[in-house]
Write the structure tokens for this entry.
Amino acid sequence: SVFGNIGKALSTALMIAQIAGTGGTFPVQMLPSGFREIYPYLPFSHAMTALRETVGGFYGTVYWEQMGRMGIYLLVALLIGIPLYTPISRAMARTNDLVASTGVMG
């Protein structure tokens, strides 16, 4: 993880929010309004719809629409992540060295 333990915690929090926000624990209609509003923008919602299509049978172009939307998320993540990886890695290495030099974190 580029951000170390903080990145791992953020990733876990995002995954929990996605599971809760896409009907993984309760149907979307029963979720609080905040989750219902962000539901269409979460990648998990498109993955679950595509999975339902593969399990229940293909109807029209729903599967390919959902896969295309997930492809857009992938493209955006790559366009943001690839250029920022090196500068963020360097900054985190400096931060880790600084923290290690204090002796506080063992």
User: Anything to note?
Assistant: The mean pLDDT is 87.
